[in-house]
Amino acid sequence: MSRSNEKDWTPHRERLHEIIFEADTPAGKAFDVALLIMILLSVAVVMLESIAELNRLYHQWFLMLEWTFTILFTLEYLLRLYSIRRPWWYAASFFGVIDLLAIIPTYLSLFIAGTHYLIVIRALRLLRVFRIFKLGHFMKEGFIIIKAIQASRAKIFVFLSFITVLVLIIGSVMYLVEGGSNPGFSSIPRSIYWSIVTLTTVGFGDITPQTGLGQFFSAIVMILGYAVIAVPTGIVSAEFIQQARSPQNTQACQYCGREGHADDARYCKYCGHAL
Amino acid sequence: MSRSNEKDWTPHRERLHEIIFEADTPAGKAFDVALLIMILLSVAVVMLESIAELNRLYHQWFLMLEWTFTILFTLEYLLRLYSIRRPWWYAASFFGVIDLLAIIPTYLSLFIAGTHYLIVIRALRLLRVFRIFKLGHFMKEGFIIIKAIQASRAKIFVFLSFITVLVLIIGSVMYLVEGGSNPGFSSIPRSIYWSIVTLTTVGFGDITPQTGLGQFFSAIVMILGYAVIAVPTGIVSAEFIQQARSPQNTQACQYCGREGHADDARYCKYCGHAL
Amino acid sequence: MSRSNEKDWTPHRERLHEIIFEADTPAGKAFDVALLIMILLSVAVVMLESIAELNRLYHQWFLMLEWTFTILFTLEYLLRLYSIRRPWWYAASFFGVIDLLAIIPTYLSLFIAGTHYLIVIRALRLLRVFRIFKLGHFMKEGFIIIKAIQASRAKIFVFLSFITVLVLIIGSVMYLVEGGSNPGFSSIPRSIYWSIVTLTTVGFGDITPQTGLGQFFSAIVMILGYAVIAVPTGIVSAEFIQQARSPQNTQACQYCGREGHADDARYCKYCGHAL
Amino acid sequence: MSRSNEKDWTPHRERLHEIIFEADTPAGKAFDVALLIMILLSVAVVMLESIAELNRLYHQWFLMLEWTFTILFTLEYLLRLYSIRRPWWYAASFFGVIDLLAIIPTYLSLFIAGTHYLIVIRALRLLRVFRIFKLGHFMKEGFIIIKAIQASRAKIFVFLSFITVLVLIIGSVMYLVEGGSNPGFSSIPRSIYWSIVTLTTVGFGDITPQTGLGQFFSAIVMILGYAVIAVPTGIVSAEFIQQARSPQNTQACQYCGREGHADDARYCKYCGHAL
Question: What is the ipTM of this complex?
Answer without folding.
Answer: 0.79
